[in-house]
Amino acid sequence: MSAVITTLGLTKAFGGHTAVDGLDLVVPQGVVYGFLGPNGSGKSTTMKMLLGLMRPTSGEITLFGERLSPSSRGALLPSIGSMIEAPPGYGHLTGRENMRIVADMLGLDDAQTDRALATVRLTEHRDKLVRNYSLGMKQRLGIAMALAREPSLLVLDEPTNGLDPAGIEEVRTLLTSLARQGITVMVSSHLLDEIDKMASVLGILANGRMLFQGTRHELFQHSIPDLIIETPDSEAALAQGITGVMVPEGIRISGVDQERTAEVIHRLAAAGVRMYEVRRVQQSLEDVFMDLTGREGLL
Questions:
Q1: Can you give the pLDDT at residue 293?
Q2: Contact present, 224 and 255 (Cβ < 8 Å)
Q3: Nearest Cα to 191, choosing from 76, 27, 31, 35?
Q4: Contacts by 126-131, CB closer than 8 A, 24 or more apart
Q5: What is the pLDDT of residues 88-128, one digit of tens each?
Q6: CA angle 125, 127, 130 (to 5 degrees)
């Protein structure tokens, strides 16, 4: 797939603090790209640089195959919709009136704003005051404003922040449907499990540095799930020089690959330790993320 966004050595420093450190980012076309990391990891700063809202200290940004610069910014940005930080909108105006302001600013027609409202399923609420919207509806209105210019790329910073489970599901369903329509969606979040349900490509950031970038399958290959050996002879098993801990089912061992697992099983069998089952612990994205961020160095 061709890349909609690439960066090379993207860096942003504020005084003595480096918020983004040598970031090489690749966002393929037509996917939901999950940009993950804890608060303060540099996600928002990166997105602001991608949108031309903040100038990098060093490095390059390429959008749609063209390098972002002061001279190219005006031509590139109309193809990008964004929502950074809190959703926009005036509470004393209706959804439709807020969309008309966007239309006037961007030179759009009513048909474009109507389509954007329909896309986020707010048509029946367009004449309602925004101050009476739920938080999920406000987030969807913000996404409608970003979609009004019919962009090829949508950049959203924490669009599910503060939403209840129903609101999160609404936004997740919307973003995956947009990707199916060919719109590239870059969405940042610290809610790892939610991103896991919508993103096909992941980028994991910590302390301004990229720890991992690739598909979910590739990510899970970088982490070795714990091994559970069900046995009634836990003490005898650990007495064989195996580093693990006792759990209700038997023993739990961390960081053993397939070859090491075979050695452990052989050792226990030779010692006459009864084993009823050997299995890997099911991992979530959060488990893998914690494993990655606990390692030294970068992948």
A1: 65
A2: yes
A3: 35
A4: 126/94, 126/95, 126/96, 126/99, 127/94, 127/95, 127/96, 128/94, 128/95, 129/91, 129/92, 129/93, 129/94, 130/89, 130/90, 130/91, 130/92, 130/93, 130/94, 130/95, 130/98, 131/91, 131/92
A5: 788 999 999 999 998 998 888 889 999 999 988 899 999 99
A6: 75
82: which 2 tokens? Answer: 């964004």
pLDDT tens digits for range 37-72? 887 889 999 999 999 999 999 999 999 999 999 999
Confidence (pTM): 0.78
Listed in order, the ranges of the chain carrying CATH 3.40.50.300 are 3-221
- Beta-bridge partner residues of 278: 229
Closest CA to 113 of 125, 124, 103: 103
Rounded to the nearest angstrom, the gap between the alpha carbon of residue 14 and the centroid of all alpha carbons in its chain is 24
Q: What percent of the chain has pLDDT over 70?
A: 96
- Is the CATH number of domain 3-221 3.30.70.100? no
d(CA 4, CA 79): 11
3-state helix vs strand vs coil in the chain, percent to 5: 35, 25, 35
Tokens linked to 216: 């979910």
Q: Which amino acid is at 134?
A: S
Closest CA to 113 of 138, 149, 151, 78: 149
CA distance 136 to 143: 11
pLDDT of residue 97: 94
